[in-house]
Amino acid sequence: MTNYIKEINADEFQKEVLDKPRAVVDFYSTECPPCEALAAKYDALSEIYGEYITFVKIFRQGNRELAAQLDVTGSPTVIFYKNGEPVGDKLGGGILRSDLMRNLDALLTDEEREAAHAKIIPYETETDVVVLGGGPAGLTAGIYLAQAHVKTILVDTALPGGYVATTHQVSNYPGFIEPQAGMMLSHYMSEQAKANGVEFRAAVEVGNVDLENKTVTVDGVETIKARKMVIATGSRPRPLGLPGEKEYGGNGISYCATCDAKYFEGKEVIVIGGGNSAIEETQFIAKFAKKITIVHQFDHFQANKVAQEELKKLDNVEVLFEHEPREFKKYGSMDMAVVAEDLTTGERKEIRTNGIFVFVGFLPNIEAFGDKLAVDQWGYLTTDAEMETNIPGVYAAGDVKTKAYRQITTAVADGTIAAIAISKKL
Question: Is the Cβ–Cβ distance between 366 and 400 less than 8 Å?
Fold first, then answer.
């Protein structure tokens, strides 16, 4: 923590925040990965803006009454003040440096802003390996590399954990008798990586990625220069590309049951899809929703048999086989509709519902790398047996690469192979 940051308690809040002309407060918790990700940015920005703005940190659990008064329900939460009044955005979760700067800039005059920005000095960090992506593949690669005494920096635009962190439970990961919450499984992996010496750049904005020179620009100020690179950026939910989907994404249409199922307590929802994700996530949604209608294009599910058997036990789930969605509509808050076509008759009907969940596969996250990497017909990166891509020294692991099966265990295997191969070559 820099000299510009002062840690206070609730008794000092009036004097150190409300009585100051400009202040920023970070409500943090211990054992909090998002708080750790924020800390480095908060420290760095205090050096830039601390001459003009009071920087404060407050331990949320030790000041619960104050946190409740300010409607601070999560860690970290950052609040900006001007003349004792909250202004700008209340930031939480994986907070980006650019969001912090935007709100800090709004507190300054033009002259102060220019002087503060003049203090920003880009710098370079050298490492043996840079891992892009903090899901199971990237974290495993980091663990193996760090244990081999290979200096490793892991970069992720979100918080470590990857898509697994949004899965409500994982029942087939070796070593756990009981199903594990995806969030906790991801947490265990990231903490193990940290314990072994992996450096993290989490919740950052990635700029230029130079594959040939193995450099990555982070938050516009740090250039990480490595000898080897591992791409483990994973994949994201595949959109259907239907009318209404883009307009109502996040506003009636969801791709994450763990994130949004809780909002549909006692409501009706529609699930699109019939693979593992669709059926397993339906089981989680069923804990909240009164009724679920699954719309699936085939006459049978593609999900594993165990998931299908568990689905049969639910009495609030109906299935429309051999149907496909053609359009999404919104009539009001919690008032959606799916226009579905019967593939056997061609007849279309509108199904009203409170919310829609889409689980129809994934797309690889490779946009940041241009067109220099070889890909298969579906756009996934191709590699050799050691996970090396067509560019020497650049490896790929996990769901971003071509493979027959995309599971946490196969991602972990990819990360292991890439790390061992790199360790032998460095």
Answer: yes
- Quote the pLDDT of residue 291: 97
Dihedral angle sign, alpha carbons of residues 126, 128, 132, 134: negative
Write the pLDDT tens digit of every residue in 35-64.
999 999 999 999 999 999 999 999 999 999
pLDDT score recorded for residue 32: 85
Task: Give me the helices (H) in 261-377, please.
Answer: 276-285, 305-312
| CA-closest candidate to residue 272, choices 236, 243, 298 | 298
Judge whether 328 and 301 are in contact, CB under 8 Å.
no
Largest Cα span, the chain:
72
**pLDDT the model gives residue 255:** 87
Of 78, 101, 93, 105, the residue nearest 24 (C-alpha): 78
289-308 in b/e form (b: 16+ CB < 10 A) is bebbbbbbbeeebebeeebe
* pTM for this prediction: 0.82
E strand or H helix that includes residue 416? helix 408-425
Integer Cα distance of 58 and 77 in angstroms: 10
- Quote the tokens at residue 247: 């307009």
Q: Does position 171 have pLDDT exceeding 90, yes or no?
A: no
Domains of the chain, CATH where assigned: 5-117 (3.40.30.10), 123-236+363-425 (3.50.50.60), 245-358 (3.50.50.60)
